[in-house]
Structures are given as C-alpha cells and as structure tokens.
Amino acid sequence: MQKVNKGKYFNSLTIGVAAVWFSSHCGAGFASGTQEVAYFVRHGYLAPFMPIWAMFLVGMLMYVTLEISRLHQVFSYSSIVQKAYVPIQKVLGTTYDIIQTLSMLLAPAACLAGGAALFNQIFGLPTFLGTLVMLVLTVVVCIFGAKVVRMFGTALTVLMIVCVGIITVFGIKANWANISWHISTAKMYTSVGQSLWYGTLYGLFQSGIWAAGCASAVGIRYRNEAKGVAITGIILNTLMLSAVVMMIMGGMPTVATDAKAKLLPTLYIVNQLTIPAFSVIYPLLLFMALITTAVGFVFAVQGRLGLIMFKKMENQKLKNAIISTMWLIVIWAVSQLGLLVIIQKGYAYLGYIYIFILVIPMFTLGVMNIKKYRKLEEAGELPPGLDNRVSA
User: In whole angstroms, how far apart are CA 104 and each of 108, 211, 374?
Assistant: First the structure.
C-alpha cells in the first residue's frame, strides 16, 4: 500500500494555489466593499461572523475538486466535472461545463466595471484607459501558464494582505464605537434568517472559484497538498473577509443607504479616515484585486477553451494570447451592465444555480468517485499515466 499522505500540507504549490484562490476572491466586489455590504453588512451584527461559514463551504468544495483533479491528473474544469459526475457526467457534467463557462464572465466583468469606477472616481480619467491597462496585463500574465499565474497570484496576494491589513486596522479603530454598538446590541436591519441565508449564498457563488484554483494546481501529487490548500485558503480568506466586513460595518447605515457610498463602500470608509497615504494605498489595493481576479478566471477559461480551439496551433503562448484576448472582449461587453447589477443580481442567481449543478453533485457523486479512485491509489493500481507520484 502506498503512502498517499506523505506529501507536505504546506509547500510552494499549496500556498500558490491558496493565493490564486484568495486573489480570485479578492476582486472588484471584495476590495470595493460592494459584496460585503450586499451579503453581510446590511443585515446586521452577524456580519463579521458569517464569513467563517461561507469560506468553510468554499474550502470544502475546493478540497473535493482538487482531489478529483489530483487523482485523474486533469486541471480543466470541464475535465474535472466529467470525472466527478460519473455515471451521469454526459448530462450533468456538460450542463455544468456550459454554465460554468458563462459564469466565468461575471467576476472578470465586475473587475472591468470596478476598474471603470475606480479610474473615474479616483483619477478622473476616461474609464477606457483603466480597462485597456487591465486587459493588457491580464493577457500578458495568462499566456505563460500555471506556474506564472501562481507566482503572480502569490506576490500580489502578499501585497494585498498588507494593504487590507493596514486599511482595516485604521478603519476598525476609527469606527470601533459604531462596530461594537452593533455587536453588543445585536442590531439587525433585516433578520437573522436573511443574514444566515445571504452568508450561505455568498459561499455558494464563491464556490465557483474552485475552477481557478484547480487550473493553477498543475503538479499536485498528494492528498495532503489538497488539504493544505483548503486549510490555508479557508484561514486566509476568512480573516481578510471578516476584517473588511467589520471595518465597513463602522459605516452603517450610510454604506447601505447612500447611493455613492454603496458603489464603493471601502472608499467611503477610507475617505472618512482623512489619512493622505490611503489615497495611494487604497487605489493600489483595488487595482491589484481587479487584476488578480481577472487573471485567475480568464486563465481557467483559457485552459477550457484551449481544449477545443486552435488544436493544431503549436505556439502555446500565441494560442493562449488569442484565446484570452477573445474572452476578455466578451467580458468587456458584460461589464457594461455595471458593478452593482453584476454583484447583486448576477452573483445571487449564480449561487442558486450552483446548489443543484455544483454543491450537491460534488458532495455526493464527486465524493463517491474520490473514494473509488483512492482505493486504487492506496493499492498502487491507478491506471497508467495517472500516478505522477512515482517519480516524486
């Protein structure tokens, strides 16, 4: 019997994949604060605690999909669901493939819409300039493959953590009286039931991030590595999300009622602090968040479309550049709907759909198929070509 658990929980791959997860999560809606207001803050005092449940849900989904990816050595989301959804993969797997590909428009589109708002409100520049810069950077990073995407995601994740940490410490301190009042008085603006449901809904639509994580997991060998990604990602994403939620809670109820404050709630809080350095730190944070999320999702789609487009093209970098550019043009069209519409409507509908085509199937069919292949793995009987640990 092979020692399938001898791999390390934490290494450059697990940290890199967790970083891609965080950088894909920390996008336009996260860094601008619009997601935090829509799904947590506007409901009341439970807001800082709900990210624990939401990110645990995402982490468990990430672990299951990474195990499917590892056992079969496939990294495109279309290939993973085909393996996970046996014996009904032709119907359910194909349905998920189509919807997932379409859903991969939403997060990058929110990034482009957020970039337009950023360049307009902060710099007073034409919105197309910010969009153009983001398009070029996204294509450049995506064409070089999974290792570069992991390195890029890790580097910017470190910078984003530093920026989020600095801003939230000052923001929470400045508004602690309002924050503590909400928690100590158990203040609710909607209801406990709605707060719980929207926290769950956030976890549901964020579960789609697994596709970006698995696309960057090329080289994963051991079960412990999949566990390491889940553990690192849950802790990192929960801490960062809860900190931002708590900071924005300090601006209630204005951040949920004022039209301008609702568009970029984090900017509203930052402006209240009147700290000159934040006029540089916050735009930097938001811009990094926009780029990393766009890269994570476009790279995942690039891997999927690469299986069916330009099959005879030998120049892989050129192929990647063409596919990612084409996809970004479609994303730009979707971004014209606006940031709030994408986050409040598009993400919510996606969460409902994922219940039936992702969460339930992965935790039933996916887990059953993992158990089947783990038995083969432990007995050293994985089909030829799948066991890449032989030379590890």
Answer: 7, 9, 30
Say how far apart CA 244 and CA 166 lie, in whole Å: 11
Backbone angles phi, psi at 391, to 5 degrees: -100, 10
The full 3-state SS of the chain, as one line of letters, equals CCCCCCCCCCCHHHHHHHHHHHHHHCCHHHHHCHHHHHHCHHHECCCCCHHHHHHHHHHHHHHHHHHHHHHHCCCCHHHHHHHHCCCCHHHHHHHHHHHHHHHCCHHHHHHHHHHHHHHHHHHCCCHHHHHHHHHHHHHHHHCCCHHHHHHHHHHHHHHHHHHHHHHHHHHHHHCHHHHHHHHHCCCECCCHHHHHHHHHHHHHHHHHHHHHHHHCCCCCCCHHHHHHHHHHHHHHHHHHHHHHHHHHHCCCCHHHHCHHHHHCHHHHHHHHHCCCCHHHHHHHHHHHHHHHHHHHHHHHHHHHHCCCCCCCCCCHHHHHHHHHHHHHHHHHHHHCCCHHHHHHHHHHHHHHHHHHHHHHHHHHHHHHHHHHHHHHHHCCCCCCCCCCCCCC
105: tokens are: 């428009």
Using pLDDT thresholds of 50, 70 and 90, give the confidence band for residue 335.
confident
* Rg of the chain, C-alpha, whole Å: 21
Domains, the chain: 12-378 (1.20.1740.10)
Mean pLDDT in residue range 329-354: 75
Angle among Cα 175, 35, 100 to the nearest 5 degrees reads 160
Identity of residue 149: V
State residue 188 phi and psi, 5-degree precision. -120, 135
Tell me how crowded residue 72 is: count the other CB atoms within 10 A of its CB.
19
Q: Which pLDDT tens digit goes with each residue over 177-200?
A: 999 999 999 999 999 999 999 999
With a CB cutoff of 8 Å and minimum separation 6, the contacts of 275 are: 170
What pLDDT digit, counting tens, does each position of 37-61 carry? 999 999 999 999 999 999 999 999 9
